[in-house]
Description:
CATH topology of the largest domain: TIM Barrel
CATH class of the largest domain: Alpha Beta
Number of domains: 4
Number of helices: 26
Structural class: alpha+beta
Largest sheet: 8 strands, mixed, barrel
CATH architecture of the largest domain: Alpha-Beta Barrel
Helix content: 40-55%
CATH superfamily of the largest domain: EAL domain
Amino acid sequence: MNRPKTDERIIQRRTRRITVIAAAVSVILLAGGGLFYTLLQNILNSATDSRIIMASEEYRRNIRRLVEGDVQILQTLGSFLDEAELSEEDVFAEKMYDANRKNDFLGMAFFGSGMELLVTAENGIEERTGFDTLPEPMQDALERAGEGKITVSDVYDSANMGEDMFVVCVPVMMDGRIRGVLAAGDSAARMRRLFSADSGGEDYSYVHLVNGNGEFQIRSWEGKLPENVNSVFDNPYLEEEIRESMKAVMQNGESGMYMFQVHGTKYKVYLEPVGINDWYLFCVNSMKEVVGSVYWVITGAEAVFLIFLALCLLFIMSSYGLVRHNNRQLLQAACTDPLTGGCNLAGFLKKLEDACAHGMQFSVAALNIHQFKFINELFGKEQADRLLQYIGSLLRDELEKEEFFGRETGDYFYLFLIGTDREKVEGRLHDMMRRIKQDPLLERSSYHVLFYCGVTDTEGQERNGELPSRMMTQVMFALDKAGETRQDDVWFYDTQLHEKEKRENYIESHMHQALENGEFRLFLQPKVNLRDGSLAGAEALVRWVTDEGKMMFPNDFIPLFERNGFCARLDMYMVEAVCRHIHRWMEAGIEPVPISVNQSKLLFYEADYPDRLRKLVTEYDIPAGLITLEILEGLAIGNVEELNERILLLQKEGFRISMDDFGTGYSSLNVMGALKIDELKLDRAFLMEISRENNSRQRAVMEMVMVLTRRLQISTVAEGVETEENEELIRELGCDMGQGYYYSRPISAEDFDRRFMNFIPPASDR
Length: 766
């Protein structure tokens, strides 16, 4: 009689046990499903954020390239204008017509300093037009350009052109003053094409260009918002808190990521400043498909868990696989270059890491087009992008099955090549460069395109987690070396490049101690008066003599110091060394000669720079006029007014200002006319060009430069004088002073004293 009861209790006990286990499993599965859902949500959010940020950055770069291209065209045209051309309006109009036809502007115009319209490339020579008749955005841009600033107007509807447009304005400098403003109208439709779906991917929704108030500049995909909505802040689906946060972010010039929901569909919004005016990119990405999939997975799972645990588990696993697939697609898109279809830099690095982990032998190459920006200027961005697409297509055809390529922003291509046979790799790369030049755009053009490659491989390299980043560093070293050759070249990373890397590490770790120990020594190179052969002055040059007695030359450390900022401290150290040396001459009763000292941009614009110079000449009791401060013309690019203010301040203190390396920059003549300099130093490249046979053009340019400097009362120094013929040539051209190996190499300050000053300092001073 007791047995059935015992069996029942056992069954009950087992049932309870199974129920508890089943309940526990259900709870665990549900909790695990919740955690899994959260993890997927985070992964998808991260991938979506990365995608929208990368797409926005690409749009931003495209907009800036478009505007900067317009600016460069106007600056180039403006740098060749003179008063004579402006007085002959028919000639000037024809030049503007020609520039307009080549660059597809809607129109071009030149406005005088009084903001009257002098000439236009649209309708010929116009009557003097009242400034007040112009559209307000154009008026604002012209007024700011008249103050010496490069400006871009907001987008506006032009009744004359019959379409939306914006205006780029560039001031024209002549004889150190603003003579007028060159303006060019560009189509908003051209900028709108940058917002095509091809750049954002299949699931990318839309992007608008707005100003700081959220008002539309350029709209894309008009169906997303009604046409009567004039501001993104008028979007009824934005919560007030999000709207206020967006306004605060835009007022502060920051970027921001937001989310809002419309009819059950979630959207990601990314705000990014363009860096032009107060323009912002308003990028919106729909998350409907991704988030919807996960939502139905979780909802279905909850129902199935209550019916049957096994089916629930199967459903979750199936959903996991689906989401993983979707996520892989998102990550793949985020790692793809939309222009060429190859990898972007992030995607290339990911594949490179995978290849390193598998232990295969391979090479990594970096391919670059020399001065690609000029291709953009000559042929336009559309044609330049088509060339990049052609390169991508050619590389895809040339690479083997397991090989791949990637593109960084611009014209940098990276190639993963199987094998380490350098002869074979070099042959393949030269063949690729040859085939690229067969592109119709390059074949029918007279522009000679140069390609260069840097290569590294796994041969002899240690296999560890640092190998991918180490190889990318190596390949960029090799690429820089190949670029120095100025020819189609392939350069392999080798011990020499490795030693360069180690040398730079040594320099950075010892530079501060070397300065304290007095290891940076003053060397002087004489400047000779070409009229009578007398000593006219000297240039101060630095040499680094280490504790071991090894001498390092400026090329070994100055480029590195310019990158890390140490050059400012070293330059000031050299100024003091020059002051100390001039003081020594004066104490000995020797008539001093002026000494010029190179000054970096970083130091030249420091707020207390003039005060520090004044204290030095006061401390050493020397005339400031014996110190010539040499600057590079690059300081003036886009910054002429500020630079002139600093020059005049220093000249007021008595210092002389010299512009070094004239002729190596992009707008040398324009800069020379605008700056209030005392001395112009002609780069040795000028003299080398003139010395060549049948180089009458360069000689004519030099003669005009000499005429202009005499009119501006600027003294001239020709560098690189190495022969008697060089000296005779610069004397004929009218140059004031010569400097170079023909007279003397740079020598120590002590040797200079003995050789040129007839002065032997006391032993205590040496």
